[in-house]
TrEMBL record:
Native source organism of the sequence: Streptomyces hebeiensis
The UniProt record lists the keyword Oxidoreductase: yes
UniProt-listed Gene3D superfamilies: Acyl-CoA dehydrogenase/oxidase, N-terminal domain, Butyryl-CoA Dehydrogenase, subunit A, domain 2, Butyryl-CoA Dehydrogenase, subunit A, domain 3
SUPFAM superfamilies: Acyl-CoA dehydrogenase C-terminal domain-like, Acyl-CoA dehydrogenase NM domain-like
Pfam families: Acyl-CoA_dh_2
Name of the featured protein: Acyl-CoA dehydrogenase family protein
Length: 382
């Protein structure tokens, strides 16, 4: 854990099963996430935040996910949504963080939902949005909708616009009952509210460089989106391997021999450990690139590829460990089963689709090859 994030929130042994029942974080866990510094991690220093790095976030989120992937998922998104909110105009940032940088921001921004039309000095925002993780404990919610393009007087084009809405101005519906990641509380919300101009920005704005901004506020959204969603998956898989190995290493066969001494468990251990070490290296490479590397279209595509490939490795490990877990892993409250369900559910997120990442990577390489006069390839282009 690096210095800009505090101690990992402590989870009790029965937190996981309890979150599976309630399908949301407890108040204690939501408060602990804030105390640990996740909400302020990407908030600009101008407002008391850390303007932190992606490597630090990867380390903190994956460590937390070893015990509870749902808590880690919400923690990662509170951090990520604070980064998105930093693109609000100055007056909007002051409204969010004028009193404290420890503001919990939930979001439902992809795909755009609801409707937004010009009204007075702002926007009339209305409709329903799905899967707003952590919304029950949020202070603000970012909601996206297609809206008339402000730069097109004819009104013939539209843009993907994001609106910051107070949690008190949205109604939350208890709709989240998935197979895994149950504790994220990714419920649906409805609102009908007038949003002033200082509480809105466009997806296009995420590509602009903010003057004198920290590194975390100058990187493209596409460079880091998959990385943030993949971090809890990595930690959950590492936790699953630890759980399986602790059980296996301490197990004795009826003939007195050790279970770990058998070829089958040895194969499970070796293959799973090498997959997760590979996944972590890919994730660390992506986080380091987000923190330090010169940004190019190929780097953006490579980061997406690496994060999605890491998730594929984690899924492979989780499947193997669950199969090797025996009858004990069939229990609904078993830690190994819970990790398997969480990883399987998280993989379904659109940002972690390897097919899409592969297509984007190929497209970026072909474009770079054309620009370089056909003199480059995957090993040379960065």
């Amino acid at each position: 854990m690096l210095s800009d994030l505090g101690e990992t929130p402590r989870l009790a042994r029965d937190d996981g099963p309890f979150l599976d029942e309630t399908c949301r974080l407890t108040d204690r866990l939501a408060d602990a996430v804030v105390t640990a510094g996740f909400a302020r991690h990407f908030v600009p220093t101008r407002w008391g935040g850390a303007a932190g790095g992606f490597t630090a976030l990867l380390d903190a989120v994956s460590a937390l996910a070893e015990t509870c992937a749902s808590t880690a998922w919400v923690a990662a998104l509170y951090a990520a949504h604070g980064r998105l909110a930093s693109y609000l105009p100055e007056e909007g940032r002051r409204e969010l963080w004028g009193r404290s940088p420890d503001v919990r921001v939930a979001a439902s921004v992809v795909p755009p939902q609801g409707s937004a039309v010009r009204e007075g000095g702002g926007w009339r925002l209305g409709g329903r949005w799905t899967m707003a993780s952590g919304v029950d404990h949020a202070d603000w919610v970012l909601l996206a909708s297609w809206a008339p393009d402000a730069d097109d007087p004819s009104g013939g084009t539209r843009e993907h616009r994001v609106f910051a809405v107070r949690r008190s101005d949205v109604k939350v519906f208890d709709t989240w009952r998935p197979v895994g990641m149950r504790g994220t509380g990714s419920n649906s919300v409805e609102t009908d509210v007038l949003v002033p101009d200082h509480l809105t920005f466009t997806l296009r704005d995420l590509g602009r460089v903010q003057p004198h901004a920290a590194r975390c506020h100058t990187v493209p959204y596409a460079l880091v989106a998959a990385l943030i969603f993949a971090a809890p998956v990595l930690g959950a898989a590492e936790g699953a391997l630890r759980t399986w190995w602790e059980r296996t290493a301490g197990s004795v066969r009826p003939d007195g021999g050790t279970v770990a001494g058998q070829p089958g468990p040895q194969q499970v251990l070796a293959r799973s450990s090498v997959e997760l070490q590979s996944a972590r290296l890919l994730m660390e490479r992506a986080a380091h690139a987000a923190d330090h590397a010169p940004i190019t279209p190929v780097l953006v595509a490579e980061n997406q590829r690496n994060a999605c490939a890491a998730v594929e490795l984690c899924v492979s490990t989780a499947d193997r460990l669950f199969r090797a877990g025996g009858s004990r892993a069939l229990g609904e409250d078993d830690a190994l089963q819970r990790a398997w369900r969480d990883i399987t559910a998280a993989r379904a997120h659109g940002t972690l689709n390897f097919d899409a990442a592969a297509a984007g990577y190929t497209k970026a390489l072909l474009a770079a090859r054309a620009d370089a006069g056909h003199r480059t390839g995957p090993g040379a282009v960065r």
